[in-house]
Design goal:
heterodimer, A: about 425 residues, B: alpha+beta, Immunoglobulin-like, eight-stranded antiparallel beta sheet, 6 helices
């Protein structure tokens, strides 16, 4: 009667199914098992569905890209030009993403509800009398959240001043909307991928791409604490990283249909960040607001991406070899490995990024916003773990790292649970 | 004003680098010149163009100020505005912003300027046209003065959208836990339905907690913002026992003053402090005094012969940064405790500053809308109000004509370097402003911002240089306009009943004219575009 998916930790999949409907199930390491049963009349052939990426999936993936590109562009805009208005290119990119994601999903819902073929209706969930894919509802919700944030943010600026804080309540609503667009796009692709049963590698890669965007979004939110090499000798950097990254690396990876999914997701994050970092630097721009203490001449790029690829490789190896352990044991292994591997690579890479050798186009170090009063703080480590006498304390740092491992264990466990759920999503 | 910050902390540097237009600049002060009158009004020359400039304060920081520039003579082709922070140097200023001509009024230009940090600024107004290019420097103090309340309509809209989003999110989570994980086409069974309910219930509880946390967060932001809103620094006014008579002591006892490192005070019109006493509730007595500084927080002044009663006390000072502020206190004068007896009321005050002046007369309201006020020796001062009612926020200069006993225009002598001084207060005390024909700006602020050089990095160096230049108030030329006439650019900030004291010097004596006015609420656009002051008053 029901196709049961039991996903073990290393990627073998066990299915049981009844001969009543097409069933495509995904194995953890890319192993797929497909149960094709009696075809649904008048439905497009399963092969046709599997072979192509539907237009609305491409549209929502594009919307997700537009949102994250717009966000990074907007941050660069504020660091470089400063003067804000609604119709900046960066804002347009963000809202275009919201609009496209919402409209594409809305159109999908309307079609499924009123003109959907049986297969489309079967692969949907009910929502206030309408039917549509799970991810489409999240995209629509994200669009409404972004829409809601606009009058709220406008009032906030009038009441308290423009962006008196990075994370204000209206920005949180906007951020939740953006995250929903990205997660919705990911879920839409995920459901197709899970139903396709591995027949479409395009879907598998599109899913990983969407997951990479979600990871980049998490990194952007945490950027104030994790983006600067000056922070990377502080335990705080590792605690925040432990809170932000394992969840978005392990969770989506557990539902991916390709090999080494954590590494692939981290590679997408790295590639997108590098692309934005290199492209933005190419555009000349000058500040339009004052006071200008740092007269920049081009768009300020994001900082060099974290070397998450290294922990990602370690996590992939662990997931392949220790998948049979209990979830908490596995989570502990993943969390400890994540923090230790990140510590090894970022500790030394931070030293490089703070050196003159990194102050070039490729590594884009030492870029600060137009309002920064430049000083020696640029090349110093911040938030170091110090004792009562003000000296760096190895013991305090080590204690902070232990805390980071504990945090990473929890987020890894949540990621494993989230991933198990995502592996089952087929609507 | 505070001195320049020692450096940027790392936490601050991080936030700065994030660059989301944060209000992370140093908080330069929490009070400014005048009380309840946040806009800046200026009239003066920009080269060969007389201009009147209104800077409508954003009220929040960072915020967008509206700037209106009215070029009173000449044929301007371009007007640009550019904000210079007091200690940033020329390189710290953003590019000039071209003001757009206002349709239907070739003399009026408007622009918007962002002020990103609370501080003292010099707004450079550059005019180009048939008379070449000219520049006026307008001191502007930017502080947060208000918090916009949320309208019920917007509140209702946001609440409705919030509920919609909450309901949508819970529905999504229920679907994600129930139908979402079922194979396509399979109807939801009891176990998944139950699971969905559990997920929705738990999620609702979590969301409720998140909302409560969000409310706490919002309240904390609001509380912190309100605490940092602009407010006049508190001072204590007391009578100090001195021989042969008690003197008025002003002690600046506000923690903001005590806890900060301010730039030194500089003299404005040659005085470090301008002190105003206004008796309430009748507003029938006003004194304009100039206390001497005893130390950085204490000033003293001989007390003139004023009637007993409760007095509002306002003290204007200017910092080397160009930041002008008004301190607020109160004082009770009792018979035998500093108040004058009726027989003393016209006597002199021993040891008083020669520029001290005071007025005792009719209570507020008794004068009605009488435009003329009798001065000594038969001279009069007339407020040329015109037929239109006064409207809050409207650009409409206060025009006055002083005539001698024969009705001829009386030549005005400089009083504290200005052709005239005016004190404006709302009856309830919510507005107090000390005005001149150059507007609400302090001449000392203008001097400090004009003469500051990159070499003035040590607090006090500019003040010493300015002091060495002699009187710092001689920015206005009483002889520039028609004899006996002057205009003060100003817009009453809010509707209500006001009293004005206008002071001029005639034949060596300071004369005070008193006027009452009712200011109507703003109707429609608060910026008055078509009003141009009389050609006779253009300088």
């Amino acid at each position: 009667m029901i196709a049961r998916v039991f996903t073990d930790a290393i990627g073998t999949t066990i299915f049981s199914a009844r001969k009543s409907a097409p069933r495509h199930h995904l194995g953890r390491s890319g192993t797929m098992t497909t149960f094709l049963e009696e075809p649904i009349a008048a439905a497009p052939s399963s092969t046709a569905l599997r072979a192509r990426v539907p237009g609305y999936l491409a549209a929502t993936a594009l919307a997700s890209t537009s949102v994250i590109v717009g966000l990074l562009w907007d941050i660069s805009w504020h660091r470089t030009i400063g003067r804000d208005r609604f119709l900046t290119p960066a804002h347009l990119a963000i809202y275009l993403g919201g609009l496209v994601g919402g409209l594409a999903s809305g159109a999908r819902v309307l079609k499924t509800t009123f003109a959907g073929c049986p297969e489309e209706r079967a692969a949907s969930v009910g929502f206030w009398g309408f039917r549509g894919p799970l991810g489409a509802w999240l995209c629509i919700w994200g669009s409404f959240a972004m829409l809601t944030s606009a009058p709220f943010d406008n009032w906030w600026h009038n009441a308290y001043g423009l962006d008196v804080e990075i994370l204000s309540p209206p920005h949180t609503v906007l951020g939740l909307g953006m995250i929903a667009i990205e997660m919705g796009a990911m879920l839409l692709v995920l459901a197709h991928q899970n139903r396709a049963g591995g027949a479409s590698s395009a879907l598998g890669w599109l899913y990983v791409y969407c997951a990479g965007i979600a990871l980049l979004m998490a990194a952007t939110i945490a950027w104030e604490y994790t983006g600067f090499p000056n922070m990377m000798h502080s335990a705080l950097f590792y605690k925040v990283s432990a809170a932000a990254f394992p969840l978005f690396m392990i969770g989506p990876a557990r539902a991916a249909a390709i090999r080494s999914p954590v590494t692939a997701i981290a590679a997408v994050y790295t590639g997108l960040t590098l692309a934005m970092m290199w492209i933005l630097q190419l555009f000349p721009a000058t500040p339009l607001l004052g006071p200008i203490y740092n007269p920049v001449g081009h768009m300020q790029p994001p900082t060099f991406p974290l070397l998450l690829v290294v922990p990602a490789v370690a996590l992939d190896l662990l997931l392949e070899r220790l998948g049979g352990r209990s979830k908490w044991r596995l989570a502990a292994a993943l969390g400890v490995t994540f923090v230790l591997s990140l510590l090894v690579v970022q500790w030394f890479f931070a030293e490089f990024l703070l050196s003159p050798a990194a102050r070039n186009f490729v590594f884009a170090a030492d870029h600060w916003n137009y309002g920064s009063r430049l000083g020696p703080w640029r090349y110093e480590y911040w938030n170091l773990d110090r004792d009562g006498a003000g000296r760096w304390s190895g013991a305090r740092f080590a204690l902070g790292i232990v805390w980071a491992m504990a945090v990473a264990t929890v987020t890894s466990r949540v990621g494993l649970g989230w991933g198990a759920w995502m592996a089952r999503v087929r609507r | 004003m505070t001195a320049a910050p020692a450096g940027i902390g790392r936490r601050k540097a991080t936030a700065t680098a994030l660059g989301l237009a944060l209000a992370i600049g140093s908080w330069w002060g929490t009070s400014r010149a005048h009380v309840g009158s946040p806009d800046t009004w200026f009239e003066g020359p920009a080269g060969r163009y007389p201009v009147r400039v209104v800077v409508r304060a954003p009220g929040v920081v960072p915020g967008l100020a509206e700037i209106d520039v009215r070029v009173l003579a000449g044929r301007p082709t371009r007007v640009a505005v550019q904000p210079f922070i007091w200690n940033g140097g020329a390189d710290a200023a953003p590019p000039p912003e071209n003001a757009r001509p206002v349709r239907g009024d070739p003399r009026l230009f408007d622009a918007h300027l962002w002020f990103m940090v609370a501080s003292s600024y010099a707004v450079h107004v550059t005019v180009s046209g048939d008379r070449g290019a000219g520049k006026a420097i307008v001191p502007v103090q930017v502080v947060a003065t208000r918090r916009l309340p949320m309208s019920p309509a917007l509140g209702g809209l946001l609440a409705a959208l919030g509920l919609f989003l909450l309901a949508g999110l819970l529905t999504f989570l229920g679907a994600a836990a129930g139908e979402g994980v079922l194979p396509p086409g399979e109807p939801i069974d009891a176990s998944h339905r139950r699971l969905a309910r559990v997920v929705v219930t738990v999620s609702a509880a979590i969301l409720a907690l998140a909302l409560a946390g969000g409310r706490q967060w919002w309240n904390a932001v609001d509380r912190a913002y309100r605490q940092n809103l602009n407010r006049p620094l508190h001072a204590a006014a007391t009578l100090l026992a001195r021989a042969p008579a008690p003197v008025l002591g002003i002690a600046i006892d506000d923690p903001e003053w005590m806890g900060r490192r301010w730039t030194p005070l500089i003299p404005d019109h040659g005085k470090l402090m301008h002190l105003f006493l206004i008796r309430e509730p009748g507003l029938d007595a006003m004194a304009h005094l100039h206390p001497l500084m005893r130390d950085s927080s204490h000033f003293e002044s001989p007390l003139p012969l004023l009637p007993a009663g409760h007095y509002r006390v306002y003290a204007d000072v200017v910092h080397e940064s160009g930041f002008a502020r008004t301190l607020v206190a109160s004082l009770d004068l009792r018979p035998g405790g500093g108040a004058a007896t009726p027989s003393e009321a016209s006597g002199d005050t021993p040891g008083a500053d020669p520029d001290d002046s005071w007025y005792v007369g009719e209570p507020e309201g008794d004068r009605g809308a009488d435009p003329s006020c009798l001065l000594r020796d038969g001279a009069t001062i007339e407020w040329v109000r015109g037929p239109e009612p006064l409207v809050a926020g409207r650009d409409r200069p206060l025009r006055f004509v002083v005539r001698d006993s024969d009705g001829r225009p009386a030549p005005l002598e400089p009083y504290l370097g200005m052709p005239a001084h005016a004190v404006v207060t709302r009856v309830d005390g919510s507005v107090f402003a000390h005005l001149h024909p150059i507007g609400t700006v302090s001449p000392a602020s203008q001097m400090a911002l004009t003469l500051r050089t990159p070499a003035d990095t040590v607090p006090g160096s500019l003040a010493r240089r300015l002091a060495g230049m002699g009187s710092m108030g001689a920015m206005g030329d009483p002889a520039a306009g028609p004899p006996g006439e002057f205009a003060i650019p100003y817009g009453f900030p809010s509707p209500g009943r006001y009293r004005l004291w206008v002071q001029v010097r005639l034949r060596g004596a300071v004369e005070t004219g008193v006027f009452d006015a009712y200011v109507s609420p703003t109707a429609g656009n608060r910026i008055s575009r078509p009003l141009i002051s009389s050609p006779a008053l253009r300088r």
